[in-house]
Design brief:
Chain lengths: 631, 290
């Protein structure tokens, strides 16, 4: 099992090389090679894991040096944050970092006696997470090589600091590996901190005022989560003298668990902490793709999965699932008002994570099934959508959905991938809906009418914003000027692989449930049930065939029909075609049809603050009740 | 069981257009009588559709045809799944997908009236979708299954447990059937301010296909209404038929006595009814089950 230390350390080493190599070609080559090494290691690890019966193996690392390195790194990170905070005059934020670092160091070295337990655990869930991080994260990095080249070609106003960017991405990957393998909360806290600070630096990459503002917002919210994590660790060290995650869950210690759950909510950008993820889209697209799909937000739900046995049927579980359900509905409502494609994706991420969080909070076998399924599906689909929107932006020089009218004729390949992505997000019988359907069943069995209502309303609003996007990109474009597709080969490689994976996940949902989701669920909560019976599977297959085959059959079936073309109806004031009309001054004017965003009702400035206040209120009250009840 | 299912599906595919078209004809006749007119023959919708099929095929954008056709076929599948006694929630998900194809077909030309109609159609979908999903969940809580074939095989009609859900479903039926006051996206009557809205750019056979799909949809939706009443007792089928006819008459009545509302009233009233009638009913039911 020497692979594991290698897997965690290797990306950090690569990061140093990324930072040092200033020649783009050489650095890209090293990046590709390193990614191949990482992916190969993960495949090896996977094969090894399965051939040993896919049993969880705790790993004890008895090495004084490791502890020392972590200690130095922790202090180093603290100084980095403090320095950044003082440079940008955000003094208060530095306190969050100082307090938690000192707290952790004190607990570790001067606090109560902590029994020595294995620090790492390789089990089914962590293997799944590793695969997601390595492959989705890895492909995003491949995409980033091409994307960042174009990015700095068009955005000459930003200094070209690609060496820094790629170094951060590799640190991020390494930290994610560390995070999902940690069994000891002290270790997890360290990696948690690294991902927080990495995302802070990635968001601030362009160094514009907006980027810095948003990066500090991300920083304080995630550091707040880190602080709660540190408090949870301290309490548990005092209560039972153990900082091992699985033991804490077994004991069901209320205060540490509620603290950890709080930290998970901040990391997963649930309301009221959603604003950091919304601000994160100022960063170049690959980092958004990374934050939204394979890393960062998934760290939060990963921790919730680990906690879920201790959440089922408790007040903390109710809090988590309520916040998740509320976020699912409200974020999808807010998404309606957005015409910026990346903002829509950001809200959709928050909303989908809300569903996962709600499922994890309920902690029943069916909901865990749905949550794991959603996690996999969301990682793939969201990574693909972000990369696709990024590629479209490079060619179209806009990421406004209104400017994407008729994109299918202008950038057919990218639009086709986009259509696959959108269809997967909400249409029957693709991934999202299967999970939603399982969640419905589970929430009924868990007697939770409030969550059912949240999902019912959230599904409706989700459908609205996706369908209007889909409707916009098909049909004739507003202008006929041709568009050059500047997407590079490596970007397409990543996009195509994502599209194929996504289609395969949809097609193979039944085997995936049997061989991936159910075993993970079993190792996580001890039992595995999924009531996908044969009749349901048959219906899914019928629907799948229908939605894949019918449009094609109809398309080619009607292609030969003789049809006479006419112009569209505009009260007889068409100016000879469908694109222009004669206005009241008798002059020709271009027709502009726009989607409906309801900004006056659902705009961020109307709705976001009330949402945050509401959810913060619920969160504070429930935290007080839970902690007050436990003391 | 399999042959019985097969016969039901076959009956639906063959008979639904005739039943739906006939009901449409009755609708026009009854509406005319309410307005003091004689009205056309009850078979007029069939004459209309036959005539539409014979018209010269005109299109604004060629690819629209395939989307319209997919819409129709998906509607047949949705209803087919329902009458085969399959999972109700999956039927409703399929209905959503189907409605999406209509929206895509409508917006495909990006022409002004169709675009407005399409956006309004989306708001209508957003309004009725929660109630549709809650209806499926309601049946699950009341009977312990999502399967239509098991739901209708219960000893007690589901309406006993789901009066609120039934009221909520009737409310959204008005939107689904495109009846005033909720016919925002397209109206059956020639007095819509956005002309024909969703179907604006569809003529000839395309429009005929839309009519066919609507007939299939009517039968499917009335099937859901019937499901509230049907149980293992054969007498309940008669009761269900009476209720379905009454519900249909109610929709015609509402259509003729109300003026079209704006989208805010539509959305808010539907969501409030969904919450009050559907949500409260469901909550009580779920808590009783605990």
């Amino acid at each position: 099992m020497n692979l594991i230390p290698f897997l965690i350390c290797f990306p950090f080493v690569v990061a140093i090389f990324m930072y040092l190599i200033r020649n783009n070609k050489i650095r890209n080559g090293v990046a590709y090679a390193s990614l191949v090494v990482i992916m190969a290691t993960v495949v090896w690890l996977l094969v090894d894991f399965i051939s040993h019966g896919a049993q969880g193996t705790p790993i004890l690392i008895e090495n004084e040096l490791t502890e020392l390195v972590i200690l130095i790194a922790e202090v180093g990170l603290m100084f980095l944050v403090v320095y950044q905070c003082f440079v940008h005059r955000k003094y208060l934020i530095s306190l969050l970092s100082i307090v938690q670092t000192l707290l952790i160091i004190w607990v570790e070295h001067f606090g109560p006696e902590i029994s020595e337990t294995p620090q790492m655990l390789l089990d089914r869930l962590s293997v799944l997470m590793i695969v997601i991080v390595a492959f989705i994260g890895g492909m995003i990095t491949i995409y980033a090589v091409g994307y960042m080249h174009g990015y700095h070609h068009y955005h000459t106003e930003f200094p070209d600091r690609r060496y820094y960017f790629f170094a951060l991405i590799f640190v991020f990957l390494g930290a994610m590996f560390g995070l999902v393998l940690s069994k000891s909360m002290l270790w997890m806290d360290f990696f948690w901190e690294v991902t927080s600070i990495c995302s802070f630096l990635l968001i601030g990459y362009t160094k514009t005022d907006e980027a810095i503002e948003n990066s500090f917002r991300a920083l304080w919210m995630n550091l707040l989560g880190g602080l709660m994590l540190a408090i949870g660790i301290t309490v548990s060290a005092f209560q039972i003298g153990v900082v091992d995650l699985q033991t804490i869950v077994e004991y069901g210690l209320t205060i540490p668990i509620v603290c950890f759950a709080f930290a998970a909510l901040t990391k997963s950008a649930q309301l009221p902490f959603s604003r950091w993820l919304l601000g994160a889209m100022v960063a170049p697209t690959p980092s958004s793709a990374l934050l939204h799909s394979a890393t960062m937000v998934k760290a939060g739900v990963y921790l919730l999965f680990r906690l879920s046995p201790a959440l089922a049927g408790t007040m903390t579980g109710t809090m988590v699932s309520f916040i998740g359900g509320l976020t699912f509905f409200l974020a999808s409502l807010l998404a309606i008002s957005k015409s910026d494609a990346k903002a829509v994706l950001a809200y959709s991420t928050i909303s989908n994570l809300g569903l996962i969080v709600a499922c994890a909070g309920v902690g029943m076998p069916e909901t865990i099934w749905a949550a794991i399924y959603l996690l996999i599906f969301h990682a793939v689909s969201k990574a693909m959508m972000f990369q696709d929107v990024g590629a479209v932006e490079n060619s179209l020089h806009s990421r406004n959905i209104e400017n994407m009218q008729g994109l299918i004729y202008r950038l057919p390949r990218l639009t086709f991938i986009m259509l696959i992505g959108i269809a997967g997000m909400y249409l029957a019988p693709f991934g999202m809906l299967i999970a939603k359907w399982a969640a419905f069943k589970a929430f009924v069995d868990a007697s939770n009418p409030l969550l059912i209502i949240f999902i019912a309303f959230g599904s409706a609003t989700t459908m609205f914003y996706w369908t209007k996007w889909m409707a916009k990109i098909i049909g004739p474009p507003r202008v006929d000027t041709p568009l050059r597709d500047v997407t590079k080969k490596n970007e397409y490689a990543s996009l195509y692989i994502h599209a194929v994976i996504m289609v395969v996940i949809c097609l193979l949902c039944v085997p995936m449930s049997k061989f991936v989701v159910l075993p993970i669920e079993e190792s996580l909560i001890g039992s595995a049930t999924m009531t996908l019976d044969s009749a349901d599977i048959m219906v899914m297959v019928i629907l799948l065939i229908a939605i894949v085959v019918l449009p094609f059959v109809c398309y080619f079936g009607t292609k030969k029909h003789k049809r006479k073309h006419v112009i569209s109806y505009m009260n007889g004031v068409n100016a000879g075609d469908n694109k222009n009309f004669i206005d009241s001054f008798g002059e020709e004017k271009q027709l502009y049809t726009a989607n409906w965003y309801m900004v006056d009702y659902l705009g961020e400035n109307k709705l976001l603050t009330p949402c945050i206040i509401l959810s913060a209120g619920v969160l504070i009250i429930m935290m007080c009740l839970i902690i007050g009840g436990a003391v | 069981m399999a042959t019985k299912q097969f016969i039901f599906v076959l009956l639906y595919i063959v008979c639904a257009p005739f039943i739906g078209g006939f009901l449409d004809g009755v609708d026009r006749k009854v509406s005319a009588r309410m307005q003091g007119r004689k009205g056309p023959s009850v078979f007029q919708p069939f004459y209309d559709v036959i005539k539409l099929f014979q018209k010269e095929p005109l299109v604004v954008k060629r690819s629209q045809t395939f989307l319209v056709m997919t819409y129709l076929l998906f509607m047949v599948i949705t209803g087919g799944l329902f009458f085969a006694g399959m999972d109700l929630l999956l039927c409703f998900f399929s209905l959503t997908t189907c409605a999406m194809f209509l929206v895509l077909a409508a917006s495909f030309t990006h022409s002004p009236y169709a675009s407005v109609g399409c956006q309004r159609e989306l708001v209508q979908m957003m309004a009725y979708e929660p109630m549709v999903l809650l209806t499926a969940v309601g049946f699950y809580v009341a009977t312990g299954t999502f399967y239509v074939k098991d739901i209708i095989g219960m000893d007690m009609s589901a309406i006993v447990y789901l009066p609120g859900v039934f009221i909520g479903f009737l409310f959204i039926l008005t939107i689904k059937m495109r009846k005033s006051p909720f016919d925002l996206s397209t109206a059956h009557h020639a007095h819509q301010e956005i002309v024909r809205g969703v179907t604006q750019e569809m003529v000839g056979s395309n429009l005929a296909l839309i009519h066919l799909a609507e007939w299939y949809e009517t039968v499917f939706l009335l099937g859901v209404v019937a499901m509230f009443f049907v149980n293992s007792n054969p007498v309940s089928y008669v009761a269900a038929l009476i209720v379905v006819l009454l519900a249909y008459f109610l929709e015609i009545l509402i259509d003729n006595v109300s003026a079209r509302v704006n989208w805010k009233v539509l959305l808010v009233s539907t969501w409030v009814v969904t919450l009050v009638a559907g949500g409260v009913n469901l909550t009580i039911l779920v808590l009783m089950h605990r």
